[in-house]
UniProtKB/TrEMBL annotation, chains A, B, C, D:
Residues 4-123 form the Gfo/Idh/MocA-like oxidoreductase N-terminal domain. This is Gfo/Idh/MocA family oxidoreductase. Residues 131-249 form the GFO/IDH/MocA-like oxidoreductase domain. Coiled coil: none annotated.
Amino acid sequence: MDRLRIGIIGLGWFGEIHAETIAGVANLELAALCTRTPERLAEMGEKFGVKKLYRDYHDMLADPNIDAVSICTMWDQHREPAIAALKAGKHVFLEKPIASTVEDGLAITEASKSAKGILYIGHIVRFNPRYRMAKQAIDEGRIGKIVALSSRRNIPAAWTPTILDKIGPIVGDAIHDTDIMLWFTGQRIVSAYAQTVDVRGLKHPDIGQTMYRFADGASATLETVWCMPEKTPFDIDERMSIIGTEGIIHVQDTFPNLGIVDGDRLHSPDTTYWPMFEGVRGGALRDEFTYFATCALDGKEVTIGTPEDATAALEATLAAEESARTGNVVRIG
Amino acid sequence: MDRLRIGIIGLGWFGEIHAETIAGVANLELAALCTRTPERLAEMGEKFGVKKLYRDYHDMLADPNIDAVSICTMWDQHREPAIAALKAGKHVFLEKPIASTVEDGLAITEASKSAKGILYIGHIVRFNPRYRMAKQAIDEGRIGKIVALSSRRNIPAAWTPTILDKIGPIVGDAIHDTDIMLWFTGQRIVSAYAQTVDVRGLKHPDIGQTMYRFADGASATLETVWCMPEKTPFDIDERMSIIGTEGIIHVQDTFPNLGIVDGDRLHSPDTTYWPMFEGVRGGALRDEFTYFATCALDGKEVTIGTPEDATAALEATLAAEESARTGNVVRIG
Amino acid sequence: MDRLRIGIIGLGWFGEIHAETIAGVANLELAALCTRTPERLAEMGEKFGVKKLYRDYHDMLADPNIDAVSICTMWDQHREPAIAALKAGKHVFLEKPIASTVEDGLAITEASKSAKGILYIGHIVRFNPRYRMAKQAIDEGRIGKIVALSSRRNIPAAWTPTILDKIGPIVGDAIHDTDIMLWFTGQRIVSAYAQTVDVRGLKHPDIGQTMYRFADGASATLETVWCMPEKTPFDIDERMSIIGTEGIIHVQDTFPNLGIVDGDRLHSPDTTYWPMFEGVRGGALRDEFTYFATCALDGKEVTIGTPEDATAALEATLAAEESARTGNVVRIG
Amino acid sequence: MDRLRIGIIGLGWFGEIHAETIAGVANLELAALCTRTPERLAEMGEKFGVKKLYRDYHDMLADPNIDAVSICTMWDQHREPAIAALKAGKHVFLEKPIASTVEDGLAITEASKSAKGILYIGHIVRFNPRYRMAKQAIDEGRIGKIVALSSRRNIPAAWTPTILDKIGPIVGDAIHDTDIMLWFTGQRIVSAYAQTVDVRGLKHPDIGQTMYRFADGASATLETVWCMPEKTPFDIDERMSIIGTEGIIHVQDTFPNLGIVDGDRLHSPDTTYWPMFEGVRGGALRDEFTYFATCALDGKEVTIGTPEDATAALEATLAAEESARTGNVVRIG
């Protein structure tokens, strides 16, 4: 088998982006789609030229000609399809966060232990080449021991009203930086303190500021603003600094990298995560799918995006949200 | 009187920088110096061509031909000389922090109420033109209501071992950003949470990460790393972002502003605060002294660097330090 | 005499900026104004509280209570007032370019030789602290011998239609970078090649790209775009790189230095040259006037902004404009 | 056929990078290697686990189980292997510049017309996502008509002594920006003027500064410095600005994108072109090979990296080099 036949479960905006990305991955074939809404299913089937269309994911999992699934359902609806897919012997690409509770995360992890297929959790930032190269530098000892970190991952207000009905910025976005910080330090997080600000009165607050303490004493702050004003140039204002005893690493994925001034304003579009060229998406998302497909096809162990790492990141961000709700520092583990 | 005759009390490294700056201020005349160490006093007297040299500041204050003093003693030795100078009718330029305790800050403030001279507290960042222009934009309503802020003020490890015996990075440096945030928001700070990291085992920890809550719900994080590694290009890695409901302001005083690659490495020297050209210092410190001299000579009220503002910034940073020591959130006021 | 009583000749937009700046210079007193238009003269007199108002500069020069003049007339109307002012014994601050022809520049220079007052040509960029610090680094030998330079000095289209009726971007703006490059290299320019682009059909082309060869073989490119589109964030997109055999210097006076996103777009206003705070202008223009006043009052020789340097910069930029007109490389000297 | 079996002709440093990249392309199989030096051939064969090793490329071309070749010989040794490979029916990935003379470029182009296989010229910058997105914005009319461009592509001195024995910075590197500018404007270049600086006395000068005029009047400057000093943070200091009548685009592939301060200095390594992670290279080079393989396997026409475009870029850069040698403006076409 040279190409993995993959189906997508959940066709919201990110499920569609998965499809647009899979089209550019040589060892993947987009073979099936699943969503509950018939109109959306028909529309997406036509757009991607996919014949196998399902309204119930169990039917997709029952198809022996589907090798793998990507799961893009809502984050609190991950447990059932993920475990069912693993039990059906499929390879599973599960979007982050792994789940909405640590308990669900552990159950999914457990299910993956005895599964025939691989399980990969979509922590896409690990495929941003800046962070990968940073990780290499850290592993080579070039910055010594990490003592402090700070991150920002801010997005425009226009993008978030719908998302903020489902998930807040700490679990929704700071989880990326939490995962990266755990990866970089190799430490556990032992406490979380966070403050949120509710700007627009939506279900979740628009802004989260989080502080972690790591087991070895390192300290971190994480900023996630989901209400950058209309005229911000940044699709993502994303930065991280890693302070070591012997060095520092700075990452920044914004202007001046790329800036387009047009009749409207300066735009600094993302070119890293899922840029689209000629109808197909590339960037880190394609690299992630390539990694997933290659692990599955070649029988290689998944070492990036493991459910254990994903659950640890989930646990820390949930603790931060609890801290923001209660006003107290939350100890972990 | 066209020029204010000024004396400096305290001739550590920053007292010397005061002297190098006063030399370039047209309406100031450096007329006297005071420090306890005779050798240092003689050396500085010769360097600046100053004849009136004192080992006891009371003697300087007794001189009727001295109009003003700048006080650069240790931060916990501010109360006595400041109050004595005010009582002696001198104009007083007092370095920040106003004092080492809120009680001292209030006593100095109180003494200034009945004084003949003016009292200015050296919160130099208010004379950084980026922050001044940001303040103008905020006051014009261009970014709406401020909902979140974040700042960084990091300096090289090589500069701090001596300072860290006297003061830590939160009260020592985050107080700048605290003052600016209070100025920008026009709000009180109601709670502080902070974490410190002790990297080198000096008297104070090297790193502080602080989080504030403002009375109207705005939230802020402040980073102060006093151990940037040897090869960092930055004299100061200084940044602030102010998130408003209608706009955002970004300030950054580092490379690419100015970068000098020489045989050693990339350097990004400060050109904003007290750059020295041909033996005289300019920048924000000169603007600060010009403001001080102009207020004193023209009888204008001091509205920047008031003791009330300085005491509020002190109170918040001391609360942050208490939080870092105890691990608890500290409520203020 | 503690303060120099100064008059301004020419009250266009930049004459007004001179006035707004002089107000913040302690050793200058704005004592007189001169322009041909009575309404403008009255309006400016009222705005700045100046009593001595002249429509003919000869009358101002005849006043023994005027010590100095700043000349802001059109660049091709510099020769007469400058020489007259020097002959009248006044100190002269003459805006750049020194003149519109090399012949005029030489005549002004000649007149300054026998004058009682000093002559300073307003090459303001020499008071930008980034370039001053760069010059120090170069003089200290930190980047070795300069082998190549490149610069950009671009401004918004909205600012230039009126200016483009009077002067083009090479003589108008690249002259700044030409002067700086001559200062940094200590070399003569031996040839110029330039291309212009006429975008809006105004009297002068909107864009100039210039290339110089220096006597020692160093090479330089200079970009001046006077038609940055409406939504550009930059007041000035100003950059210079200096390549040496042992090092490199980069200067950039734009975002991320300061960025203000408001309801309109991202703005990156200039805070270096003449930022206005509370009605008074500071920055490099104030430093320039302070330098001028201090040289005049203290009898110090003018070493920055000499007419010789200003004429050399004029000669090179005029050669570049000739090259752009003829399509040929123009040899100098 | 699902995977293209590819051989590499020429195993210098870049041939090896090709091999390290092909290893990560799902629809390519590295099947053969060819170089004249037996030791190098054996070493590379072992490193990449390739069994088919040739010292004469004709032998590789005779193998019916080789579908494609990448040609990494010296730029003046492109014509013969490229034409031979096309005649042998192979798909050809030919490194840029297409050749060392326009005549050779035309001959290779001609050979590709009747060939069974596709011909792709490795203009890698077209796969940098910043430029691709810029091209999209230009094609959408977002910046209006392009009136001026400027670029920089500078690399460290330490990398270039060997290369400078073979090729200079204008044809060697400015050809990238030349190709991109031709792509962006859709215009011909009608004249070139260039200046070079010889810093180290190697076979070719270290620095090139080039100016182009486009057929529609647009003007461009291109900087290529191949002697950035030892301590420069940049692997590549790469920037381009595109000035349109309605907008501007800025591209910059350097710090602050990624900066690593270690015990040595600040490093800003390239993460765009061929970053290596776990022994395999990704980035634009992988995207280029993926594009090549996909065109070849799916029978799609090559529209990026055509020999016509590559020859036009070669012609312009050769004209610039002639200008630098003669001191005259060189007209093209």
